[in-house]
Amino acid sequence: MTAYTHDPADNHPSLAELRAVAQPPEHIARYNAEHWAGALYIRHLSVHATRALLPTGISPNGVTWLMILVGVVGALLLPLPGVVGPLLCVLAMQLQILLDCSDGEVARWRQRFSPAGIYLDRIGHYATEAAIPAALGLRADGWSLAHPGEVGGWTVLGLLVSLVVLLNKAFTDLVHVARAKTGRPVLEDVAATTRSKVSGLAAVRRAMGYLPIFRAFVAVEASLLALLAGVVDVVRGDLVGTQVLVAVMVPLAVVTAGGHLLGVLTSSRLD
């Protein structure tokens, strides 16, 4: 198939031209990189956002910086009282994933790729997905930006979940570090590379696919869970919904990270 040719300096492409270059099928179909919301609805919106961003002259990394800012601020709004904080967090995570799509689309249209872009993207996801459980802990303790005060055990549990989330994400990135340091090629982003070589573990992994608890620590899903907990808080008139969510997140985070580490060590990713 002949690649579509375009002028990277053209800041006013048609939607069809932009889709052909910025949303190639081989990119959208990547096994681990594309969030389900991307294929479902965000990619249909992000192409319009990208088209609006191009005339501003913003760089791909500039869009990534916006993504980082939106994600972190959105997480920090969680402790606001009632459903206001969780609702703002949900909206921020939707905007973040849209910008996460658009930064790559701007890069592909302008043909401007750099390690800095990948580095900043990782920082954005690390910071946001660690900030959400920490902010949930603050909310569970009754702390808010409007009424700051002392924090207690719920905040400690939220920070513990944040630490485990960061470790879990590091388990993925350290695979690439280990392969690079031993001169191995870049790992292909396909399902076969993640499959455990231990049959029993492979079966457990397949079974867990029907109950993807790891998604509780992805920004979009975590914000939706926070909103559900916030609704429970409002109905009850207390913070039990958020407190239960934080309590449940602790063992789920440990199981997720432990299973991930075991999966890496028993797969072909380090061969």
From TrEMBL:
Entry protein name: CDP-alcohol phosphatidyltransferase
Keyword rRNA-binding: no
UniProt keyword list: Membrane, Transferase, Transmembrane, Transmembrane helix
Regions that span the bilayer: 63-84, 213-232, 244-265
Any matching Pfam family: CDP-OH_P_transf
GO molecular function: phosphotransferase activity, for other substituted phosphate groups
GO cellular component: membrane
Domain of life: Bacteria
GO biological process, alphabetically ordered: phospholipid biosynthetic process
Gene3D superfamilies associated with the record: 1.20.120.1760
